[in-house]
Structures are given as C-alpha cells and as structure tokens.
Structure prediction request, 237 residues.
Amino acid sequence: MVTNDGPLAGRTVVTTREMPGGLDRRLSNLGAHVVQVPMIAVVDLDVDPVEGALDWIVVTSRHGASRIGDITGAEIGHPLLAAVGTASARVLAVAMDRDVDLVPDPQTGEALAAALTERVAVGSRVLVALGDLAARTVVDALTAAGAEVEERVVYSTRRRQPGAEQLTAASGADAVLLASGSAATAWAEAGPIDAGAVIAIGPTTAEAARSAGLEVSVVAEEHSIDGLITAVVDLLG
Prediction:
C-alpha cells in the first residue's frame, strides 16, 4: 500500500524482477509509486540429483539456492555452504536449515571463486548450482584447484520484451532498479526508456548494464534487496 509520507512519496520507481515481491512491497511502503516491468523469466530445469557425500554446496544466485532441495539426494552429509551474496545466502540457509559458512566480500562471482580456492581442499566434492547464463568463474576456479565439481544447471533465464503499455508506464520514472545482469541487458535491448536513474544491485549487474550501453547512476553498497532499497532512498529520498 502506497503511503503519502514516506521518504519516496511522490517518486516513481521501476522494478524489473520476474515477479512482484518484497522489493515492490517495501518500496510502496516507503511511499513510492512502483511500476513493475518484468525483464526476465526464470524457468526451472529438470536435472539429475547429486547422490552421496558432499564437502561443499555452492550457489551463485537465489534461484540456484532455492533448488538445492530438488537436486540433492540422500546421504549428502553435512557439507559446508557458500553463496555469492546475502540474498542467495538467505535462501540457501532456509533450504538447508542452517547458517551459510561463506559469503565473499565483495559479493561477486570472482570474489566467491577466490575465497573458495583458499578453503576447498584438493579432491573435495563440491556441488555448484547455477543458471544457464551464469559465468563459469566459480566452476573453473574450483576445477583448477583440484576439486571434484558436480555442476548442475538448474534454471534458465530468458529475457523478456515489455509491452507498449508497460513502457509507457515506466517512462518518466525517477529510477529503474536492476537486480541482475540479464535484466540489465534486456532493459537496454528494449530501447531508450526515459526512466531516470539506473540503480544496479551490484558490480556484476552494473558491468552488464554498462556493456549494454546504459549509464549506471548508483551501485548498491550491499548487493541485496536491502542494498537496492537503501540506494534508492539515499538517491531520491
């Protein structure tokens, strides 16, 4: 429900995630008029589960984290858990019913790969759950470090083309929030849209946006939904 006295009152903010959720609700509670323009669709893929003991489970997105229960069989033991960022760590912690052992700083694939290669022993069995468009940074680093990598591509990310009505609603907004590189690329491909400041959830998304020709105004300091909200309030509030 939109309030009239929040720090974002009178502001229009575009969100680009695949479906409305906590981000949209929290922005509305802060007074923003939220225009949801989904730029990606996430489709779960059927994959064979990993059987037997694991030393590590690694996820590079919250979507991959949400599929862990589907792709792990019996007797996985008590593997250590690693996630690329706080958002994926929260989902993984719920899936595994315990805290995550490793979240890198900064929260990027490169930092996750570097942190893992320092901690994963040669011969360790590591499950990596990722999407079809994910960079192979983590998988390649673990393989080079001598780990036995069980790679599972558990979802497909498909870019969407917004309709004319959605583009009209987004035009003239104060800011557009980009929560993934795929969304950033799709937003750029949709054509020039006058939607104010471009705010990216993290450096990887910002890099994808810039590569697609967008001018990024702000990169969230914390690479999470909390960080996005803080960034937009700091900029517009």
Summary: Residues 225-236 form the longest helix (12 residues).
